[in-house]
């Protein structure tokens, strides 16, 4: 089969939506890039320090932290970006369209049918840089890919069934890797090629200790040189990086900047001060409430607006009373005035219905207007009916329950008391327990969390959005809603090669889970990215794979003269 066959092609249809919210201008006359300077960034996760430096820990944020030095087989093709005249804004958290994928460490790939396998040809001449106490510089080879995959697959933290469709991974020569399949999986490239847990690392790093940031090394555009928990992560350019950027018909060696620094800033006001004053070159995520104020005080800033790629919800543990009763869960949904939240809390800067599927997922996404009446009911404010449903369920006077929330999210910390206020009107009282991120995540992953769990969670992609939250053994099952028949449907989706059929199946499964109301389904807000005009070759792109920003930053250069002109 041809390169990229059997992959979802939903990105092409999503292009119009992306272009609409990105608001990007046509490609301008190309400036000549400059080398040097430091790039200071308040990232999408500016409040959260690194969770782990070891891919075998299966930490979702790993690509964000290690992805500047550890690369993957595939990545998003930034030559297909809106900035360069293409279709894609490269903002989704973990979704790439078929025609927006390029090889990163892979040069090319193809499917074979007998045996069923993906044969990947690797780039030649890619080097692991020397790292004192870890390794001498040497060439990247197929054995590194085999080692990395086997290490992931045998990790005690590996998700059950995540790689169960792969029979064996072999290095058939120095630059060829063959993934032999037991059966087809429609998320194959996401799961081991550009997804959350698909970094390729050298065996020497594992031997030295991958969990120690001081040992960090990789083939990527930057190398980790400093880490202060709760303060910053600093990366210096990799002098032996392999990739280039073609601009105006000329190829330039990457990266352009000498250093990238992630600033860990827990206080939202301090983040805003950083971008206003130019101490931050880019602030990737700004809530709508602050936008007008920042624009007024720093009118030179450039902006991108985008619909969040994470859903906000209050998960209700269906294995704990009173949430074992679907009437209770439906009642709490109807007690929350979601239209009012869009209008008053978000100032109109939100969409009522955009989770667990995102409007970008054309063909998979179904609007609320065509949903069954029983689903529409969950988005219609009706406290009278909600109170009656509670009485019918045996709670005429309501009840009290605890809800945990992460103090790392200003938006969630602000929104949850509002939800509590709506519920109190039907006699339901909520005890709110703020938690630091590590403890918050640990409580859920060990299923020791409270009956209520308030969070935002990435859409990922059309299949994983359902799979990771509503099938057993996955990381994000906050509601503990698992049914064998639903899990069986999910496996059938993964085994279906015909995308049109998969689309129909996912739409039906989405209707089913919405109707079951394991969450209080809440609106999805618009967010903003701001950057100074001296940041060049950039249009608000956020990632080229699962929370993978490294190739974006590698292509940015700093106009030093303009920065000085603006007095920064």
In short:
This protein is of the alpha+beta class. It is 30% helix and 22% strand.
List keywords for this structure.
alpha+beta, 2 domains, five-stranded mixed β-sheet, eight-stranded mixed β-sheet, 18 helices, 25 strands, disordered N terminus, single chain, 568 residues, Dipeptide-binding Protein, domain 3, globular, D-Maltodextrin-Binding Protein, domain 2
Kindly name the structural category.
alpha+beta
Q: Averaging pLDDT over every residue, what do you get?
A: 92
Which CATH class of the largest domain?
A: Alpha Beta
* Contiguous runs where pLDDT drops below 50 for at least 5 residues: 1-28
Q: What is the architecture of the largest domain at the second tier of CATH? A: 3-Layer(aba) Sandwich
Q: Any idea what the shape is?
A: globular
Number of strands: 25
Task: Give a short account of the largest sheet.
Answer: 8 strands, mixed
Number of helices: 18
> How many separate domains?
2
Distance between the termini: 53 Å
> What is the radius of gyration computed over CA atoms, rounded to a whole number of angstroms?
24 Å
Report on this structure:
- This protein has 568 residues and is α+β, with helices and mostly antiparallel strands.
- It folds into two domains: 326 residues, Periplasmic binding protein-like II (D-Maltodextrin-Binding Protein, domain 2, 3-Layer(aba) Sandwich); 216 residues, Roll (Dipeptide-binding Protein, domain 3), CATH 3.10.105.
- Helix content is 30%, strand content 22%.
- It is built from 18 helices and 25 strands.
- The strands form seven sheets. Strands 1, 10, 11, 14, 15, 16, 18 and 23 form an eight-stranded mixed β-sheet that branches. A five-stranded mixed β-sheet has the order 20-19-21-17-22.
- Strand 10 and strand 11 form a beta hairpin.
């Amino acid at each position: 089969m041809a390169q990229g066959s059997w992959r979802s092609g939903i990105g092409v249809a999503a292009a119009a939506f992306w272009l609409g919210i990105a608001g990007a201008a046509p490609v301008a006359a190309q400036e000549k890039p400059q080398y040097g300077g430091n790039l200071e960034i308040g990232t999408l996760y500016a409040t959260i320090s690194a969770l782990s430096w070891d891919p075998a820990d299966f930490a979702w944020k790993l690509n964000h932290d290690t992805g500047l030095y550890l690369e993957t087989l595939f990545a998003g093709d930034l030559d297909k970006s809106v900035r360069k005249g293409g279709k894609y804004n490269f903002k989704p958290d973990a979704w790439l369209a078929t025609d927006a994928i390029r090889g990163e460490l892979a040069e090319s790939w193809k499917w074979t049918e007998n045996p069923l396998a993906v044969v990947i040809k690797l780039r030649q001449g890619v080097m692991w840089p020397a790292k004192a106490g870890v390794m001498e510089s040497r060439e990247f080879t197929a054995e590194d890919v085999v080692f990395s995959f086997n290490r992931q697959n045998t990790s005690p933290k590996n998700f059950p069934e995540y790689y169960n469709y792969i029979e064996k991974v072999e290095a058939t020569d120095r630059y060829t890797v063959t993934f032999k399949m037991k059966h087809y999986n429609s998320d194959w490239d996401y799961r081991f090629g550009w997804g959350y847990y698909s970094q390729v690392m050298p065996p020497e790093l594992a031997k030295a200790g991958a969990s120690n940031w001081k040992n960090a090394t990789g083939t990527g555009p930057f190398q980790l040189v400093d880490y202060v928990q709760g303060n910053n992560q600093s990366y210096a350019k990799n002098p032996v990086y392999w990739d280039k950027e073609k601009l105006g018909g000329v190829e330039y060696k990457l990266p352009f900047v000498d250093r990238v620094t992630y600033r860990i800033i827990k206080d939202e006001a301090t983040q805003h001060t950083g971008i206003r004053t130019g101490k931050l070159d880019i602030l990737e995520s700004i809530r709508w409430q602050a936008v007008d104020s920042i624009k007024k005080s720093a009118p030179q800033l450039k902006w991108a607006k985008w619909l969040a790629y994470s859903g906000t919800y209050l998960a209700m543990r269906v294995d704990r009373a009173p949430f074992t009763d679907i009437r209770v869960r439906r009642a709490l949904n109807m007690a929350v005035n979601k239209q009012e939240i869009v209008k008053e809390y978000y100032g109109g800067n939100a969409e009522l219905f955009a989770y667990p599927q995102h409007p970008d997922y054309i063909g998979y996404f179904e609007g609320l207007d065509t949903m069954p009446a029983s689903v529409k009911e969950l988005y219609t404010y009706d406290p009278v009916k909600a109170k009656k449903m509670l009485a019918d369920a045996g709670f005429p006077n309501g009840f009290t329950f605890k809800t945990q929330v992460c103090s790392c999210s200003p938006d969630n910390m602000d929104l949850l008391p509002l939800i509590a206020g709506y519920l109190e009107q039907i006699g339901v009282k909520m005890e709110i327990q703020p938690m630091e991120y590590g403890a918050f995540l640990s409580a859920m992953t060990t299923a020791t969390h409270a009956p209520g769990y308030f969070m935002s969670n990435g859409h990922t992609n059309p299949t994983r959005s359902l799979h990771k939250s509503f099938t057993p053994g996955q990381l994000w099952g906050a509601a503990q809603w698992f049914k064998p028949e639903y899990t069986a449907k999910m496996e059938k989706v993964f085994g279906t090669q015909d995308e049109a059929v998969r689309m129909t199946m996912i739409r039906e499964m989405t209707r089913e889970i919405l109707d079951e109301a394991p969450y209080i389904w809440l609106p999805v807000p618009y967010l903003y990215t701001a950057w100074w005009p001296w940041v060049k070759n950039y249009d608000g792109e956020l990632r080229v794979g699962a929370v993978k920003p490294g190739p974006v930053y590698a292509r940015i250069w700093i106009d030093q003269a303009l920065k000085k002109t603006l007095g920064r």
